[in-house]
Amino acid sequence: MSTTQTFDADVVIIGYGPSGVAAANALGAYGVKTIAIERDRDIYPRARAVTVNDWTMRLFQSIGLDDQLSRNMDRTRALRWITYDGRELTHMEFPRSTLGHPRSYAIYQPVMEEILRRGVQRFQDHVTVRFGEELVDIAQNETGVTVTSRDKNSGVEHRIRARYALACDGGSSSTRERLGVKLLGETVETRWVVIDARVKRWWPHRNILTFWSDKKRPVVDIALALGNHRWEFPLEPHETDADFSTHEQLWKLLNSLGVTDNEVEIYQHAFYKHHVRHAETWRVGRVFLLGDAAHLMPPWAGQGMQSGIRDAFNLSWKLREVLAGRLPESLLDTYEIERAPHVAEMTAIAVEMGRIIKQQLSEEEMKALAAPPPSDQAPPEPPLLRPPVLRAGWVRGPLDEGSIVGKMVPQPRVAGANGKLCMFDDQLGNGFVLLGNEVDPETVLSTTDRQAWANLGASFLTLRSAESRGVKTTDIIDLDGSLIEWMREFKAKVIAIRPDRFVAAADGFGLSMPI
To answer: Is 189 helix (H, G, I), strand (E, B) or coil?
Structure first.
Protein backbone atom coordinates (compact mmCIF):
# COMPACT_ATOMS: atom_id res chain seq x y z
CA MET A 1 0.00 0.00 0.00
CA SER A 2 1.52 3.26 -1.09
CA THR A 3 1.63 6.51 0.80
CA THR A 4 2.25 10.00 -0.46
CA GLN A 5 5.40 11.91 0.43
CA THR A 6 3.38 13.75 3.08
CA PHE A 7 3.22 10.63 5.27
CA ASP A 8 5.96 8.55 6.83
CA ALA A 9 3.56 5.65 7.28
CA ASP A 10 -0.09 4.72 7.04
CA VAL A 11 -0.20 3.65 10.70
CA VAL A 12 1.95 4.45 13.71
CA ILE A 13 1.79 2.09 16.69
CA ILE A 14 2.59 3.56 20.10
CA GLY A 15 3.74 0.76 22.39
CA TYR A 16 5.03 -2.67 21.41
CA GLY A 17 3.58 -5.00 24.03
CA PRO A 18 1.15 -7.81 23.11
CA SER A 19 -1.44 -5.51 21.49
CA GLY A 20 1.16 -3.50 19.60
CA VAL A 21 3.13 -6.45 18.29
CA ALA A 22 -0.12 -8.21 17.29
CA ALA A 23 -1.13 -5.11 15.32
CA ALA A 24 2.32 -4.92 13.71
CA ASN A 25 2.04 -8.54 12.57
CA ALA A 26 -1.47 -8.12 11.19
CA LEU A 27 -0.73 -4.84 9.42
CA GLY A 28 2.54 -6.23 8.10
CA ALA A 29 0.77 -9.29 6.70
CA TYR A 30 -1.68 -6.93 4.97
CA GLY A 31 1.11 -4.84 3.47
CA VAL A 32 0.21 -1.69 5.40
CA LYS A 33 3.15 0.68 5.86
CA THR A 34 3.61 0.88 9.62
CA ILE A 35 6.01 2.41 12.17
CA ALA A 36 6.01 1.18 15.78
CA ILE A 37 7.73 3.00 18.63
CA GLU A 38 8.58 1.45 22.00
CA ARG A 39 10.51 3.02 24.86
CA ASP A 40 12.03 -0.26 26.15
CA ARG A 41 14.09 -2.51 23.91
CA ASP A 42 13.78 -5.58 26.15
CA ILE A 43 10.59 -7.53 26.62
CA TYR A 44 9.08 -7.12 30.08
CA PRO A 45 10.56 -10.08 32.00
CA ARG A 46 7.58 -10.90 34.22
CA ALA A 47 4.87 -13.09 32.69
CA ARG A 48 1.72 -11.07 33.33
CA ALA A 49 -0.72 -12.99 31.13
CA VAL A 50 -1.02 -16.75 31.61
CA THR A 51 -3.24 -18.15 28.88
CA VAL A 52 -4.56 -17.95 25.32
CA ASN A 53 -7.60 -19.72 23.93
CA ASP A 54 -8.80 -21.11 20.62
CA TRP A 55 -9.99 -17.75 19.24
CA THR A 56 -6.66 -16.08 19.93
CA MET A 57 -4.75 -19.00 18.41
CA ARG A 58 -6.94 -18.73 15.31
CA LEU A 59 -5.84 -15.11 15.01
CA PHE A 60 -2.21 -16.20 15.31
CA GLN A 61 -2.93 -18.77 12.60
CA SER A 62 -3.98 -15.95 10.28
CA ILE A 63 -0.43 -14.54 10.48
CA GLY A 64 1.22 -17.94 10.19
CA LEU A 65 2.56 -18.18 13.75
CA ASP A 66 0.19 -20.63 15.45
CA ASP A 67 2.40 -23.69 15.03
CA GLN A 68 5.53 -21.97 16.29
CA LEU A 69 3.69 -20.44 19.22
CA SER A 70 1.94 -23.66 20.22
CA ARG A 71 5.28 -25.49 20.43
CA ASN A 72 6.12 -23.20 23.34
CA MET A 73 2.76 -23.59 25.08
CA ASP A 74 1.05 -26.35 27.09
CA ARG A 75 -2.56 -27.35 26.67
CA THR A 76 -4.63 -26.67 29.77
CA ARG A 77 -6.78 -29.64 30.67
CA ALA A 78 -9.27 -28.07 33.07
CA LEU A 79 -9.84 -25.60 35.85
CA ARG A 80 -11.28 -26.10 39.31
CA TRP A 81 -12.21 -24.25 42.48
CA ILE A 82 -11.22 -25.99 45.72
CA THR A 83 -11.03 -25.09 49.38
CA TYR A 84 -7.98 -25.44 51.63
CA ASP A 85 -9.43 -28.62 53.08
CA GLY A 86 -9.54 -30.17 49.60
CA ARG A 87 -13.29 -29.82 48.91
CA GLU A 88 -13.88 -29.23 45.21
CA LEU A 89 -16.55 -26.54 44.71
CA THR A 90 -16.73 -26.89 40.95
CA HIS A 91 -14.72 -28.30 38.09
CA MET A 92 -14.63 -27.32 34.40
CA GLU A 93 -13.10 -29.58 31.75
CA PHE A 94 -12.19 -27.88 28.49
CA PRO A 95 -14.29 -29.47 25.75
CA ARG A 96 -13.25 -29.87 22.13
CA SER A 97 -13.27 -26.58 20.24
CA THR A 98 -14.97 -25.84 16.93
CA LEU A 99 -12.40 -23.16 16.03
CA GLY A 100 -9.59 -25.48 15.01
CA HIS A 101 -7.36 -25.16 18.08
CA PRO A 102 -7.41 -26.47 21.67
CA ARG A 103 -9.69 -24.51 23.99
CA SER A 104 -6.94 -23.26 26.27
CA TYR A 105 -3.16 -23.05 26.38
CA ALA A 106 -0.86 -22.16 29.25
CA ILE A 107 1.75 -19.70 27.99
CA TYR A 108 4.96 -18.07 29.12
CA GLN A 109 4.39 -14.50 28.00
CA PRO A 110 7.99 -13.33 27.44
CA VAL A 111 8.63 -16.23 25.04
CA MET A 112 5.31 -15.68 23.28
CA GLU A 113 6.11 -12.00 22.76
CA GLU A 114 9.59 -12.85 21.46
CA ILE A 115 8.07 -15.14 18.81
CA LEU A 116 5.59 -12.43 17.83
CA ARG A 117 8.42 -9.89 17.55
CA ARG A 118 10.39 -12.22 15.31
CA GLY A 119 7.24 -12.65 13.26
CA VAL A 120 7.16 -8.94 12.50
CA GLN A 121 10.65 -9.20 11.00
CA ARG A 122 9.07 -11.05 8.06
CA PHE A 123 7.49 -7.76 7.04
CA GLN A 124 10.50 -5.44 7.08
CA ASP A 125 9.42 -3.94 3.76
CA HIS A 126 6.27 -2.64 5.45
CA VAL A 127 6.93 -2.44 9.21
CA THR A 128 9.65 -0.48 11.00
CA VAL A 129 10.12 -0.85 14.77
CA ARG A 130 11.99 1.90 16.63
CA PHE A 131 13.07 0.97 20.13
CA GLY A 132 14.18 3.43 22.78
CA GLU A 133 11.67 6.08 21.72
CA GLU A 134 9.00 7.40 24.08
CA LEU A 135 5.97 9.49 23.26
CA VAL A 136 6.32 13.24 23.78
CA ASP A 137 3.24 14.57 22.02
CA ILE A 138 0.46 13.61 19.64
CA ALA A 139 -1.54 15.94 17.40
CA GLN A 140 -3.92 15.40 14.52
CA ASN A 141 -5.96 17.09 11.85
CA GLU A 142 -8.50 15.95 9.30
CA THR A 143 -5.90 14.10 7.20
CA GLY A 144 -3.49 12.51 9.64
CA VAL A 145 -1.69 12.20 12.97
CA THR A 146 1.68 13.61 14.03
CA VAL A 147 3.47 11.66 16.76
CA THR A 148 6.45 13.28 18.43
CA SER A 149 8.83 10.87 20.15
CA ARG A 150 12.11 11.31 22.01
CA ASP A 151 15.12 9.03 21.89
CA LYS A 152 15.77 7.98 25.50
CA ASN A 153 19.53 7.94 25.03
CA SER A 154 20.27 10.98 22.88
CA GLY A 155 17.26 13.12 23.77
CA VAL A 156 16.71 13.83 20.06
CA GLU A 157 13.06 14.27 19.09
CA HIS A 158 11.49 12.74 15.99
CA ARG A 159 8.19 13.40 14.30
CA ILE A 160 6.18 10.71 12.53
CA ARG A 161 3.35 11.70 10.22
CA ALA A 162 0.82 8.89 9.69
CA ARG A 163 -2.78 8.56 8.61
CA TYR A 164 -3.80 6.75 11.80
CA ALA A 165 -2.32 5.98 15.22
CA LEU A 166 -2.87 2.99 17.51
CA ALA A 167 -2.28 3.57 21.22
CA CYS A 168 -1.05 0.25 22.60
CA ASP A 169 0.84 1.78 25.53
CA GLY A 170 -0.84 0.00 28.43
CA GLY A 171 -3.05 0.83 31.38
CA SER A 172 -1.15 4.02 32.22
CA SER A 173 -1.31 5.10 28.56
CA SER A 174 0.28 8.50 28.06
CA THR A 175 -1.51 8.67 24.70
CA ARG A 176 -4.87 8.37 26.41
CA GLU A 177 -3.90 11.09 28.87
CA ARG A 178 -2.79 13.44 26.10
CA LEU A 179 -6.08 12.85 24.30
CA GLY A 180 -7.97 13.75 27.47
CA VAL A 181 -9.89 10.46 27.50
CA LYS A 182 -11.17 9.54 30.95
CA LEU A 183 -10.70 6.06 32.39
CA LEU A 184 -14.00 5.00 33.99
CA GLY A 185 -14.55 2.32 36.61
CA GLU A 186 -12.73 1.36 39.77
CA THR A 187 -9.54 -0.10 41.15
CA VAL A 188 -9.90 -2.65 43.94
CA GLU A 189 -7.64 -1.57 46.80
CA THR A 190 -6.53 -5.06 47.82
CA ARG A 191 -2.93 -5.68 46.83
CA TRP A 192 -1.83 -9.06 45.53
CA VAL A 193 1.60 -10.66 45.48
CA VAL A 194 2.51 -12.71 42.41
CA ILE A 195 5.09 -15.45 42.93
CA ASP A 196 6.80 -16.92 39.86
CA ALA A 197 8.74 -20.16 40.17
CA ARG A 198 10.50 -22.76 38.08
CA VAL A 199 9.33 -26.33 38.52
CA LYS A 200 11.73 -28.95 39.89
CA ARG A 201 9.35 -31.91 39.97
CA TRP A 202 5.74 -32.77 39.25
CA TRP A 203 3.02 -32.68 41.90
CA PRO A 204 -0.58 -33.95 41.70
CA HIS A 205 -2.91 -31.95 39.44
CA ARG A 206 -0.28 -29.34 38.60
CA ASN A 207 -1.74 -29.20 35.06
CA ILE A 208 -5.18 -28.11 36.31
CA LEU A 209 -5.66 -24.37 36.73
CA THR A 210 -6.67 -24.18 40.38
CA PHE A 211 -8.43 -21.45 42.31
CA TRP A 212 -8.05 -21.94 46.06
CA SER A 213 -11.34 -20.52 47.28
CA ASP A 214 -11.25 -18.81 50.65
CA LYS A 215 -12.75 -15.66 52.20
CA LYS A 216 -9.45 -14.65 53.76
CA ARG A 217 -6.68 -15.86 51.44
CA PRO A 218 -7.97 -16.99 47.99
CA VAL A 219 -5.19 -18.05 45.65
CA VAL A 220 -4.65 -18.43 41.91
CA ASP A 221 -2.49 -21.51 41.27
CA ILE A 222 -1.57 -21.91 37.59
CA ALA A 223 0.94 -23.78 35.50
CA LEU A 224 2.72 -21.62 32.95
CA ALA A 225 4.47 -23.05 29.92
CA LEU A 226 8.11 -24.12 29.67
CA GLY A 227 8.33 -25.43 33.25
CA ASN A 228 7.14 -22.28 35.01
CA HIS A 229 4.44 -21.94 37.66
CA ARG A 230 2.67 -19.00 39.30
CA TRP A 231 0.69 -18.26 42.43
CA GLU A 232 -1.19 -15.07 43.27
CA PHE A 233 -2.03 -14.29 46.92
CA PRO A 234 -4.00 -11.32 48.27
CA LEU A 235 -2.49 -9.31 51.09
CA GLU A 236 -4.62 -8.97 54.20
CA PRO A 237 -5.55 -5.44 55.36
CA HIS A 238 -2.80 -5.40 57.99
CA GLU A 239 -0.10 -6.63 55.57
CA THR A 240 2.17 -4.58 53.33
CA ASP A 241 4.63 -5.30 50.52
CA ALA A 242 7.42 -5.33 53.10
CA ASP A 243 5.88 -8.40 54.73
CA PHE A 244 6.66 -10.41 51.58
CA SER A 245 9.88 -8.88 50.34
CA THR A 246 12.07 -11.96 50.81
CA HIS A 247 11.88 -15.53 49.56
CA GLU A 248 11.70 -16.74 53.15
CA GLN A 249 8.51 -14.73 53.64
CA LEU A 250 7.09 -15.93 50.31
CA TRP A 251 7.70 -19.56 51.20
CA LYS A 252 5.25 -19.22 54.10
CA LEU A 253 2.53 -18.56 51.54
CA LEU A 254 3.50 -21.45 49.28
CA ASN A 255 3.89 -23.83 52.23
CA SER A 256 0.26 -23.16 53.14
CA LEU A 257 -0.64 -24.91 49.86
CA GLY A 258 1.71 -27.80 50.46
CA VAL A 259 4.35 -26.50 48.03
CA THR A 260 7.98 -26.68 49.16
CA ASP A 261 11.43 -26.08 47.70
CA ASN A 262 11.37 -29.73 46.65
CA GLU A 263 8.84 -28.80 43.98
CA VAL A 264 9.84 -25.31 42.83
CA GLU A 265 12.46 -22.60 42.90
CA ILE A 266 11.21 -19.02 43.37
CA TYR A 267 12.83 -16.61 40.93
CA GLN A 268 10.75 -13.41 41.10
CA HIS A 269 7.71 -11.76 42.63
CA ALA A 270 5.72 -8.55 42.21
CA PHE A 271 2.71 -6.70 43.64
CA TYR A 272 -0.36 -5.33 41.87
CA LYS A 273 -4.02 -4.33 42.22
CA HIS A 274 -7.08 -5.43 40.22
CA HIS A 275 -8.78 -2.94 37.91
CA VAL A 276 -12.27 -2.86 36.42
CA ARG A 277 -11.92 0.10 34.10
CA HIS A 278 -12.55 1.21 30.54
CA ALA A 279 -11.90 4.32 28.48
CA GLU A 280 -14.94 6.49 27.90
CA THR A 281 -14.22 6.26 24.17
CA TRP A 282 -11.81 4.07 22.22
CA ARG A 283 -11.44 6.50 19.34
CA VAL A 284 -10.52 10.16 19.14
CA GLY A 285 -10.39 11.21 15.52
CA ARG A 286 -7.63 9.21 13.87
CA VAL A 287 -6.27 7.76 17.11
CA PHE A 288 -7.50 4.43 18.52
CA LEU A 289 -6.99 2.93 21.99
CA LEU A 290 -6.24 -0.80 22.15
CA GLY A 291 -5.69 -3.32 24.94
CA ASP A 292 -5.06 -2.00 28.43
CA ALA A 293 -5.09 1.56 27.11
CA ALA A 294 -8.80 1.00 26.38
CA HIS A 295 -9.88 -1.49 29.04
CA LEU A 296 -8.62 -3.17 32.22
CA MET A 297 -10.17 -6.24 33.83
CA PRO A 298 -9.40 -8.59 36.74
CA PRO A 299 -7.22 -11.58 35.80
CA TRP A 300 -9.66 -14.34 36.81
CA ALA A 301 -10.87 -15.14 33.28
CA GLY A 302 -7.46 -14.83 31.60
CA GLN A 303 -8.90 -12.45 29.01
CA GLY A 304 -7.03 -9.17 29.53
CA MET A 305 -4.08 -9.61 27.17
CA GLN A 306 -6.18 -11.63 24.75
CA SER A 307 -8.73 -8.84 24.49
CA GLY A 308 -6.00 -6.46 23.39
CA ILE A 309 -4.78 -8.91 20.74
CA ARG A 310 -8.33 -9.24 19.44
CA ASP A 311 -8.63 -5.46 19.36
CA ALA A 312 -5.55 -5.35 17.14
CA PHE A 313 -6.81 -7.88 14.63
CA ASN A 314 -10.32 -6.39 14.51
CA LEU A 315 -8.97 -2.94 13.71
CA SER A 316 -6.17 -4.01 11.36
CA TRP A 317 -8.30 -5.52 8.61
CA LYS A 318 -10.59 -2.49 8.73
CA LEU A 319 -7.64 -0.13 8.37
CA ARG A 320 -6.50 -2.16 5.38
CA GLU A 321 -9.84 -1.76 3.64
CA VAL A 322 -10.15 1.96 4.40
CA LEU A 323 -6.56 2.75 3.39
CA ALA A 324 -7.06 0.87 0.13
CA GLY A 325 -10.22 2.86 -0.57
CA ARG A 326 -12.38 -0.26 -0.79
CA LEU A 327 -14.61 0.60 2.18
CA PRO A 328 -15.59 3.97 3.69
CA GLU A 329 -13.81 5.56 6.63
CA SER A 330 -16.95 5.05 8.73
CA LEU A 331 -16.01 1.35 8.89
CA LEU A 332 -13.52 2.29 11.60
CA ASP A 333 -16.39 3.40 13.84
CA THR A 334 -17.36 -0.28 14.17
CA TYR A 335 -14.14 -1.08 16.05
CA GLU A 336 -15.45 -0.08 19.47
CA ILE A 337 -19.01 -1.07 18.55
CA GLU A 338 -17.87 -4.64 17.95
CA ARG A 339 -15.16 -5.03 20.55
CA ALA A 340 -16.61 -3.23 23.59
CA PRO A 341 -19.54 -5.65 24.17
CA HIS A 342 -17.25 -8.66 24.22
CA VAL A 343 -14.75 -6.94 26.52
CA ALA A 344 -17.63 -6.00 28.84
CA GLU A 345 -18.84 -9.61 28.82
CA MET A 346 -15.39 -10.98 29.62
CA THR A 347 -14.96 -8.40 32.37
CA ALA A 348 -18.28 -9.42 33.94
CA ILE A 349 -17.25 -13.08 33.79
CA ALA A 350 -13.93 -12.25 35.43
CA VAL A 351 -15.68 -10.37 38.22
CA GLU A 352 -18.08 -13.29 38.77
CA MET A 353 -15.21 -15.78 38.85
CA GLY A 354 -13.60 -13.57 41.46
CA ARG A 355 -16.74 -13.82 43.59
CA ILE A 356 -16.35 -17.61 43.53
CA ILE A 357 -12.71 -17.62 44.52
CA LYS A 358 -13.35 -15.09 47.30
CA GLN A 359 -16.37 -17.11 48.51
CA GLN A 360 -18.66 -14.12 48.06
CA LEU A 361 -21.53 -16.22 46.69
CA SER A 362 -24.48 -17.02 48.86
CA GLU A 363 -24.95 -20.56 50.13
CA GLU A 364 -27.74 -21.08 47.59
CA GLU A 365 -25.56 -19.82 44.71
CA MET A 366 -22.69 -22.06 45.76
CA LYS A 367 -24.95 -25.13 45.99
CA ALA A 368 -26.32 -24.42 42.52
CA LEU A 369 -22.80 -24.01 41.17
CA ALA A 370 -21.57 -27.27 42.65
CA ALA A 371 -24.66 -29.30 41.73
CA PRO A 372 -24.05 -31.65 38.77
CA PRO A 373 -26.51 -31.57 35.85
CA PRO A 374 -29.10 -34.35 35.58
CA SER A 375 -27.59 -37.59 34.34
CA ASP A 376 -29.52 -37.34 31.05
CA GLN A 377 -28.24 -33.84 30.26
CA ALA A 378 -24.88 -32.62 29.04
CA PRO A 379 -23.46 -29.79 31.13
CA PRO A 380 -24.06 -26.40 29.54
CA GLU A 381 -21.04 -24.75 27.94
CA PRO A 382 -19.77 -22.02 30.28
CA PRO A 383 -19.95 -18.46 28.85
CA LEU A 384 -16.17 -18.18 29.09
CA LEU A 385 -15.74 -21.02 26.55
CA ARG A 386 -18.49 -20.20 24.06
CA PRO A 387 -17.41 -19.23 20.54
CA PRO A 388 -17.44 -15.45 20.05
CA VAL A 389 -20.35 -13.64 18.43
CA LEU A 390 -20.89 -10.09 17.26
CA ARG A 391 -23.56 -8.06 19.05
CA ALA A 392 -23.41 -5.20 16.51
CA GLY A 393 -21.13 -3.81 13.83
CA TRP A 394 -20.29 -4.38 10.17
CA VAL A 395 -22.96 -7.01 9.46
CA ARG A 396 -26.31 -7.26 7.69
CA GLY A 397 -29.13 -9.29 9.14
CA PRO A 398 -30.49 -10.14 12.59
CA LEU A 399 -27.98 -10.81 15.37
CA ASP A 400 -29.79 -13.41 17.42
CA GLU A 401 -29.44 -17.07 18.33
CA GLY A 402 -31.32 -18.18 15.23
CA SER A 403 -29.23 -16.17 12.78
CA ILE A 404 -25.95 -17.21 11.22
CA VAL A 405 -24.97 -13.55 10.87
CA GLY A 406 -22.50 -12.43 13.52
CA LYS A 407 -21.38 -15.98 14.31
CA MET A 408 -17.77 -17.10 13.91
CA VAL A 409 -17.38 -19.80 11.26
CA PRO A 410 -16.18 -23.15 12.65
CA GLN A 411 -12.81 -24.43 11.46
CA PRO A 412 -12.58 -28.17 10.80
CA ARG A 413 -9.96 -29.92 8.70
CA VAL A 414 -10.88 -29.86 5.03
CA ALA A 415 -9.37 -30.82 1.68
CA GLY A 416 -8.69 -28.58 -1.26
CA ALA A 417 -9.80 -29.56 -4.72
CA ASN A 418 -6.24 -30.86 -5.23
CA GLY A 419 -6.75 -33.33 -2.38
CA LYS A 420 -4.41 -31.61 0.07
CA LEU A 421 -5.63 -31.75 3.67
CA CYS A 422 -5.45 -28.55 5.71
CA MET A 423 -7.33 -26.37 8.17
CA PHE A 424 -10.35 -24.54 6.75
CA ASP A 425 -8.86 -21.06 7.18
CA ASP A 426 -5.86 -22.05 5.08
CA GLN A 427 -8.23 -22.28 2.11
CA LEU A 428 -9.71 -18.83 2.72
CA GLY A 429 -6.74 -16.48 2.51
CA ASN A 430 -6.81 -13.18 4.43
CA GLY A 431 -9.63 -11.42 2.60
CA PHE A 432 -13.39 -11.70 2.25
CA VAL A 433 -14.98 -14.97 1.16
CA LEU A 434 -18.37 -15.80 -0.31
CA LEU A 435 -18.98 -19.41 0.67
CA GLY A 436 -21.69 -21.56 -0.90
CA ASN A 437 -23.14 -24.66 0.73
CA GLU A 438 -22.85 -27.16 -2.15
CA VAL A 439 -23.68 -24.33 -4.52
CA ASP A 440 -21.43 -21.95 -6.43
CA PRO A 441 -22.03 -18.59 -4.67
CA GLU A 442 -21.59 -16.69 -7.93
CA THR A 443 -24.74 -18.36 -9.29
CA VAL A 444 -26.78 -17.11 -6.32
CA LEU A 445 -25.61 -13.49 -6.33
CA SER A 446 -26.94 -10.82 -8.63
CA THR A 447 -24.51 -9.34 -11.13
CA THR A 448 -24.31 -6.16 -9.08
CA ASP A 449 -23.69 -7.95 -5.79
CA ARG A 450 -21.11 -10.27 -7.33
CA GLN A 451 -19.20 -7.30 -8.71
CA ALA A 452 -19.40 -5.44 -5.39
CA TRP A 453 -17.81 -8.35 -3.54
CA ALA A 454 -15.25 -8.81 -6.30
CA ASN A 455 -14.29 -5.16 -5.87
CA LEU A 456 -13.44 -6.03 -2.26
CA GLY A 457 -11.15 -8.77 -3.50
CA ALA A 458 -13.49 -11.50 -2.25
CA SER A 459 -12.97 -15.15 -3.13
CA PHE A 460 -15.92 -17.28 -4.23
CA LEU A 461 -15.68 -20.79 -2.76
CA THR A 462 -17.97 -23.82 -2.61
CA LEU A 463 -18.31 -26.46 0.10
CA ARG A 464 -18.58 -30.02 -1.19
CA SER A 465 -19.21 -33.19 0.78
CA ALA A 466 -16.58 -35.90 1.07
CA GLU A 467 -18.75 -38.04 -1.24
CA SER A 468 -18.51 -35.43 -4.00
CA ARG A 469 -15.87 -35.08 -6.66
CA GLY A 470 -14.01 -31.80 -6.48
CA VAL A 471 -14.27 -30.17 -9.89
CA LYS A 472 -13.21 -26.54 -9.60
CA THR A 473 -10.14 -25.18 -7.85
CA THR A 474 -12.59 -23.17 -5.74
CA ASP A 475 -14.15 -26.32 -4.27
CA ILE A 476 -13.48 -27.18 -0.60
CA ILE A 477 -14.15 -30.74 0.57
CA ASP A 478 -15.85 -30.72 3.98
CA LEU A 479 -14.36 -33.96 5.27
CA ASP A 480 -16.67 -34.57 8.22
CA GLY A 481 -19.62 -32.56 6.91
CA SER A 482 -19.64 -30.27 9.94
CA LEU A 483 -19.52 -27.01 7.98
CA ILE A 484 -22.25 -28.13 5.60
CA GLU A 485 -24.40 -29.16 8.57
CA TRP A 486 -23.65 -25.89 10.40
CA MET A 487 -24.87 -23.82 7.45
CA ARG A 488 -27.93 -26.05 7.05
CA GLU A 489 -28.87 -25.52 10.69
CA PHE A 490 -29.19 -21.82 9.92
CA LYS A 491 -30.78 -22.48 6.51
CA ALA A 492 -27.97 -20.61 4.77
CA LYS A 493 -26.98 -21.39 1.18
CA VAL A 494 -24.38 -18.64 0.88
CA ILE A 495 -22.59 -16.64 3.55
CA ALA A 496 -20.19 -13.71 3.37
CA ILE A 497 -17.19 -14.27 5.67
CA ARG A 498 -15.16 -11.32 6.90
CA PRO A 499 -11.33 -11.49 7.15
CA ASP A 500 -11.73 -12.15 10.90
CA ARG A 501 -13.98 -15.19 10.14
CA PHE A 502 -17.25 -13.67 11.37
CA VAL A 503 -20.27 -13.98 9.09
CA ALA A 504 -21.17 -10.54 7.74
CA ALA A 505 -24.20 -11.52 5.66
CA ALA A 506 -26.15 -14.46 4.28
CA ASP A 507 -28.65 -15.11 1.53
CA GLY A 508 -32.00 -13.75 2.58
CA PHE A 509 -30.31 -11.01 4.64
CA GLY A 510 -28.81 -8.96 1.81
CA LEU A 511 -25.50 -10.02 0.35
CA SER A 512 -25.11 -6.52 -1.12
CA MET A 513 -23.18 -5.51 2.02
CA PRO A 514 -20.18 -3.80 0.40
CA ILE A 515 -22.22 -1.39 -1.72
So the answer is: strand
